[in-house]
Amino acid sequence: MNASPGPPEIFDSRRRAAKLARGDKAFAAADFLHVRAAENAVTSLEVILRDFPDAVDLSARPGPFARLLAGSAASPRVGAVRVSGDAAARAAPGAAPLDLPDQSQDLIVSLMSLHWANDLPGALAQIRRALRPDGLFLGTLLGAGTLKELRTVLTEAELEVRGGAQARVSPFADGFDDAALLQRAGFALPVSDVDRLTVRYPDLYALVRDLRAMGETNALSGAIRPMTRGLLARTAELYAERFADADGRIRATFEIVHLAGWAPHERQQKPLPRGSAKVRLADALGVREWTGEED
Asked: To pair with 124 at 20 to 30 A between CA atoms, which of 69, 164, 203, 291?
């Protein structure tokens, strides 16, 4: 009997790790998405009044979260946050087994990395197993609308210049599906929220510089045809034609999907069974109940 095949290799983990490493020196000048993700995670911890003695950060860029947590009201309630694994493992979540024992952590954070997982449900399931009962997971990943403008003009330019186009922008997850993914991975009380922002750049080349510094350029698996100067120039022209404001600056859309979920525990709030309500919904809303029958 043949074993079932594993998930398809959408991303090349070694390519992704190399691009992340090349962006290290310039990252501080282009960390705004990571800072925004870390701010959301720290704000969540500030309003959850409980202790997290054992905490680990799986983010490929752990600096922003550590910096913001250190200056927050949540800091005294969170133990020393360990950065897990080597840089290559954090660059491509799920590419290797998570180096955490089962039920060993009270808090796991993974910011701006999970969109590079070839098996996102599997990566989330590994995180879930590493949490103690009632442990908390906070994560962020880029959502489906990210770089939609760049995706459009890159495809059109390559079709025009070469007569054919290949994928060059990652297929990001749909934020509306991520709460279901958390539930499928075994999390209780899953929450998913999408944060959309538009960033303006003087031109395409400035956008590409930021993406390189973040380590967010093309790391899809398989052979990648090089970007020629002519192709890049035509992409820049189309971008300016389609997505520039009156002042000539171009727009780039980013979607940050914020995730939160808890490892199940008996003391957590649970939905009431169907039919157990003591007050009719119509009475609670102060409206007349419609039965489908005419008076």
From this structure: 69
Please give the full DSSP string across 96-130, using - where no structure is assigned.
S--SS-TT-EEEEEEES-GGG-SSHHHHHHHHHHH
Model pLDDT for residues 195-243, shown as the tens digit of each residue: 999 999 999 999 999 999 999 999 888 888 888 999 999 999 999 999 9
Residue 127 contacts residue 28 (beta carbons within 8 Å): no
CA 236 – CA 199 distance, rounded (Å): 16
pTM of the model: 0.86
Ranges in the chain, pLDDT < 50: 1, 281, 284-285, 287, 289, 291-292, 295
CA–CA separation, 91 vs 100, rounded Å?
16
SS3 state of residue 154: helix
- Give the HSE-up count for residue 147: Cα atoms under 13 Å, Cβ half-sphere: 20
Strand-by-strand arrangement of the 55-57 sheet: 81-83, 55-57, 105-111, 131-142, 250-262, 188-201
93-102 as b/e: b if 16+ CB within 10 A: bbbeebebee
